[in-house]
Amino acid sequence: MENYSDLLIVSFMVGFIVNLWSRRFGKFMPSNLAVAIYEIFKLPKFFKKSKSEKITQYKKKLSKLIYSSILTGVISVIVTYLVFENVVQAHIFPCFYLGFIWLLLVMALVDIRIELLPDILTIPFLILGVVAANFGALDVTAIWSSLGLAFGYFMPVVACLLIAWRNRYAFGGGDIKLLAGLGAWFGIGSLLSIVIISSVIMLVFCLVNKKRAYAYGPFLVFAAFIEMVFLVGV
């Protein structure tokens, strides 16, 4: 896969569409799996203008949506290129790594919009990591992947128990499943690195923006991309 042009074009298209579809999650979550799948894949009405909405407001809203989708597409292209340039296994098992990139991207967008990570995204990501490890597509073995999954799940649970007196909602259920999924993909050592990197970035973000709390998912996703591109195998 020396020529990335076709892959990068597809990556841009997926990134563009992912931003559009991420808007739909807030309209039906929480929901059961069947309803969620139906709502996601039914014909969307992204550009439907309400009768009471002025033309100028509608154009402004549409432009913002298109620009943000283009930005998401560009981010998808950059991450895809960096992963396939730096991770040898990505050339042998491209489907696993594309799933890794695109699932994390849509999870970050959904968490930013509604501060919720639905099971329809976290569970497939977790399963994909376990399957990839069993196929030898990762730097971690199947055993270490399973241990990383268990560690990723129980680590935030224990942390929540320790700080429940201060903030009982420090970790949401989606964050816990995302950490379990990242543990399956990276193993225990790299997962600890991801947690440290994401926590530092989130702390800086909250201090700069004078926020006491923010969705943790996007920072985990950003740290996971850093770990995958620059630190795995180092």
Give an overview in words.
The protein has 234 residues and is mainly α. It has one domain. 76% of the residues lie in helices and 0% in strands. Helix 1 packs across helix 4, helix 7 packs across helix 9 and helix 9 packs across helix 10. The two termini are 23 Å apart.
- The SSE string, one letter per element, is HHHHHHHHHH
Radius of gyration: 18 Å
Number of strands: 0
Q: Summarize the main sheet.
A: none
Note the overall shape: globular
The overall pLDDT average reads 81
**Total of DSSP H or I helical runs spanning 4+ residues:** 10
Total separate domains: 1
Summarize the structure.
This protein has 234 residues and is mainly α.
Q: What topology emerges from the helices and strands here?
A:
Layout: H1 5-22, H2 25-28, H3 33-41, H4 55-86, H5 89-92, H6 94-114, H7 119-134, H8 142-163, H9 173-209, H10 217-231
Helix pairs in contact: 1-4, 1-6, 4-6, 4-10, 6-7, 6-10, 7-8, 7-9, 8-9, 9-10
